[in-house]
Amino acid sequence: MELTAVIKGLEALTKKSEVEVVSDSSYVVKGMNEWVFNWIKKGWKTPDGKFRKNTDLWKSLVELAKGHNVKWTWVRGHAGHPLNERADQLAVNATPARKTN
To answer: Rounded to 5 degrees, what are φ and ψ at 36?
Structure first.
C-alpha cells in the first residue's frame, strides 16, 4: 500500500514539481534512495534469478519520479510527526468498517 500511495500522489501532479515524500515506510524511502539503482542494474532480479517483489509498482514509481525533483524522507511512525499522524488517521478513516462478532 505504501508504494501505491506514493504512485497515486505522483500521478496526481499535473506539471513537473519539487516534491518531498515523507513516509514511515523504510521500504519506500530506502528503496528509492538506495536499493532501486542496483535493482535496475540487475534487471530487477534477485540473486537467485527471480523478479523482485512488487517490480511492477517499483517500475511505475521510478518512471513517475523521473518527471519530478523528489526528495525521499523517512520519519518514525506513530512518533508524533503531525503529517504522519494525519496520514495514518486518513488511512483508518478510509478503511471499510470491519464486522466484529
So the answer is: -60, -30
Grid coordinates representing 59? 517500475
The C-alpha angle with vertex 6 and arms to 67 and 14, in degrees rounded to 5, equals 40
CA 71 to CA 22: how far, in whole Å? 8
- Using one digit for the tens of pLDDT, what is the confidence trace for 11-34? 999 999 999 998 889 999 999 999
Cell 514511515 belongs to 24
Q: Which of 70, 63, 72 is nearest to 28 (CA)?
A: 72
Please give the C-alpha separations between residue 90 and each of 26, 94, 95, in angstroms, as whole numbers: 20, 6, 9
